[in-house]
Amino acid sequence: xxxxxxxxxxxxxxxxxxxxxxxxxxxxxxxxxxxxxxxxxxxxxxxxxxxxxxxxxxxxxxxxxxxxxxxxxxxxxxxxxxxxxxxxxxxxxxxxxxxxxxxxxxxxxxxxxxxxxxxxxxxxxxxxxxxxxxxxxxxxxxxxxxxxxxxxxxxxxxxxxxxxxxxxxxxxxxxxxxxxxxxxxxxxxxxxxxxxxxxxxxxxxxxxxxxxxxxxxxxxxxxxxxxxxxxxxxxxxxxxxxxxxxxxxxxxxxxxxxxxxxxxxxxxxxxxxxxxxxxxxxxxxxxxxxxxxxxxxxxxxxxxxxxxxxxxxxxxxxxxxxxxxxxxxxxxxx
Length: 334
What we know:
single chain, disordered N terminus, mainly alpha
């Protein structure tokens, strides 16, 4: 979900909108580690997120979907607060309003996604969730060519649902689509929070807000199971794999990697999720479902390439300075 993506499963073309704001202007794309370094960091972050999601699915029989989300958010919030030590004073009411909405979007995105993977396989869940950021990318670009990518994505969804979601639990599919909508909101408010708070302070505070908002739901569903030592340990593993580690890896990568390249790499997450589901949860996909995932990945990559082309066109036309074009290669969000 992912910002760095938060993603439960996160990220896609528009997910790099926040990443573009988080990137450090003036950093060379390759840096002293060369091009392979940041690419490897992004891919490692994607693998960490999806295998963390697979671990979460295996934990759900012990703690329930809401309990797993509570543990993930709470542990990740504690770690981020200890590491970032964000300053609490000196922020306006608008700053706090932005971070609260960001935290609620984060909690909603995670809660809805985990409800989805409790009902449908991980790969299809991430594929449906990706449609939220993809829609944000297409609508924000206002270019006719993006209708092609939207049609490609819809064809993938049609295949994934077997022409009517007969092969997937309808409630699970609905939860995944709702998680995608929350992911789009997460992207918008991640960018706003990044402009109002230094470093990762806003992310740490938003994660604390999300954890507090979700705590009552987790307690109602799971109760004392949340403090079982084994459940706590597994929940901490989910938090580290799905939140703390990928956020760190992606932040490091974005200092040396152009945001459009980051977005293209993150478009591969549905495939990574399908692999994690197969290896850890024994969730095999049919040939039709695999083709559907491939179509959505192609649509995501195509949308990103379209945005990159628009950014390059602006540079050829005289455009703005290089530092601004780096963000303009991605969809504009308020």
